[in-house]
User: Fold these one by one.
Assistant:
Number 1:
Amino acid sequence: MPEKEALLIIDTINSCCAREYELPGRGIKFSRIRKMVPLLEKYVSRYRKNGGRIIFVACTPWTREFLPRNIRALYDNFPSSRYYSEDSTGKAEDFYMVRPVEGEKVFRKSSYDAFTNPALGKFLRRNGIETLLISGVFSDACVNATINGAFSRGYSVRILGDLVETTDSRTRQRLQKLLKEYSWPILYGPVISSRVS
């Protein structure tokens, strides 16, 4: 594994993957995500075995008290975008299938971009990380925001195209396709397959 590289895994948590957190009435279903996660799990196992550095990113509870002012204002002003978690058990933020092992870092975020948690940037700088392999969910939301955040802070990014996914929505799947084929490779970095990285 390159010494200055880390694998960043974004939001592979129950509220973004597990069937019981789907909202079919709002078109939020995760079957494509659940098909991708076992592939990610295999890749993580191989990456770990080869001595690669793995970093997990997950949301704080997606409830009003944990979210920043701008997201609360968005939800207040545009009710169609409102998405608060109704789970107060903490299970929503538990990792789904792909879990950190001892010694691997977990950073919590209360917005879309993982870099809104300043501890992530500090950790990367302290450890000399210059390149991030990006994986996780939702490709058109938190993954995309984190790619933007990483690149704007000077990191090189490589997106694992088969290890990022979004909801089953046809619109979101089309957007993901455009991100993978056009936006990401032109603006941020190559979209590669986990089988060749």
Number 2:
Amino acid sequence: MNWDIAIRRFKNFLKLERSLAENSVIAYVQDVVKLKQFSEISNLPASPIEFKTSDLSNFFIYLNEVGLSAYSQARILSGIKAFYKFLHYEEIISDDPAAIVETPRLGRKLPDTLNIHEIDLLLDAIDLSTPEGARNRAMLETLYSSGLRVSELINLRISNIFFGERFLKILGKGDKERLVPIGRSALKYIEVYLNEVRVHVPVKKGFENYAFLNRRGQALTRVMIFTIIKNLGKEAGLTQNISPHTFRHSFATHLIEGGADLRAVQAMLGHESITTTEIYTHLDREYLKQIIIDYHPRSQEKR
């Protein structure tokens, strides 16, 4: 039995035999769809009846590594348990692999993920009246809008920003290129920085194509980005241990919690477990851009 058949039968069971409300049915099904997507991006069994407890545990390890809160993990686990109880009840499987999967501990806030309100507080703490403020707002909007690594941010080239298409071309780990969608809000701040601030910076030779520069016209360092973010966190009154990776985790968390396709999030993050070629056999650029439009909290199209 493949995933689609199992999910369809599970959905009918919830509707007809459990008589659940439509919203509850949708929530349960979405939880199982996330597991299906994880199986596809991790080369796990093509059928849910072949899943082992260790496979399910790895799914929740992945959700935790991405930064999904314990509350969201617990809710998803509830849906997964209901799915495998159904398969066991229907005698499709003889043993329930989800029975001994432990519920994530609630009340434990991940230290490197910010909620949407905290992201806004951090961004609003930036003084846009200064050249550095305009640059910093553009950088942090880019981090949060596209989930970049700090090394990818400081090495971003102007020629790799496609304003019309709303994509960035990123050179990630292992020199692997990927295309990442970027929201209109981030692009707006990048344009302001490039056209009103960066044009007045005396650029050092060799750094003409770097998007973000320091006062001396050179590329920023990782340490500078960490320092900028930590100082802004203090000004915003945030007590978490904030780093550039906080924005990357928050980007992934908010997309997944909003209902985005796990495969699309993996593609945008550029995780090493999947090559660009494999990603784009399943997902095209327009689909990835639509994920940002539909699920990113700061998508201008949603306002």
